[in-house]
């Protein structure tokens, strides 16, 4: 194992923060990148990464690693120390108000212009060319803030990976994941090993999130050059949502760690017997088919349904109670689907999204992510 330390831009004199990456296995034979807690108040993935670090170290000593695996167990040191009156605030940077998992730099046009005259009919050549150009473009970027520095460091670590896994969680939820329709065939075994109860697919969800900042480069290059050159998708990415924020315990983390190892064996990054993936719990559905269920009024939020329940169109899922005027507002779904996540808050404000339901028919467009 090789441990690397990456210094971030200091916002003021006297303050220093670093990102730490752990590198396992041989270089040059393919690369897997895994990070945790980019939203710094989402900690289940950090514990999974800790378990995975111990297992990877053992398997490296046993000579079982066929590809390089890079692990970043703490992907957001900036957000990790944002604690206000005992409340962690790790989703948004307090200085800018920006979501830590949005606005990663898009270099698709720059890379395309750089490689346009050097592509040929050899897919291996084209993949290597894109990766070389993307690495150079990222190295040439100059960060002006600590947040930009953190984003660029993470992108530079992952830009040439065959697979990118970003470990998150929701507020209260069952296991689910996000990936692209183009990658679903490769990702389906991971969904099965993990026991994901929803798998949500979108090519471009609109926020330039960490997972999509890689896949969109390849997709846009294919759109631009695919009719003339053999240019495969050189990378695929998955955001894994490991249940809810409170689900931080060794039993779940050990189980999720084993699921990732099973998938890495299946993918060929680790040698070993391939275990048959369990049955897919719920079919993959478009992210555009997800219904964000909102409340029109504020008040005390009382749920009638649990994450993991299948709900019918028009079903009552919660009540919002006015403890002063005694009004009770029922909240119903519009569409049928799996209620996979719900709010952790129990005092709702008017217009607040309280739950997400994975339907089957796409009906939304544009920006598809939570704020």
Question: Helical element count?
Answer: 8
Largest β sheet strand count, sense and barrel closure? 9 strands, mixed
Approximate helicity band? 25-40%
What overall geometry do the principal axes of the alpha carbons give?
A: globular
Beta-strand portion reads: 25-35%
**Helix and strand composition category:** alpha+beta
The helix-strand sequence is EEEHEHEEHHHEEEHEHEHEEEEEEEEE
Number of strands: 20
Low-pLDDT segments: none
Distance between the termini: 37 Å
Strand order of the largest sheet: 1-2-4-3-7-11-9-10-12
Determine the mean pLDDT.
97
Q: Over all CA atoms, what is the radius of gyration?
A: 21 Å
Keywords:
20 strands; alpha+beta; 8 helices; nine-stranded mixed beta sheet; 371 residues; five-stranded antiparallel beta sheet
Structure description:
With 371 residues, this protein is α+β, with helices and mostly antiparallel strands. It contains eight helices and 20 strands. The protein has helices spanning 44-61, 77-80, 108-115, 123-140, 146-158, 184-194, 212-225, 250-267, and strands spanning 2-7, 18-24, 31-36, 68-72, 83-84, 87-88, 163-170, 172-173, 176-179, 198-201, 236-244, 285-286, 290-294, 299-303, 309-311, 316-321, 328-332, 337-342, 347-348, 353-358. It is globular, with a radius of gyration of 21 Å.
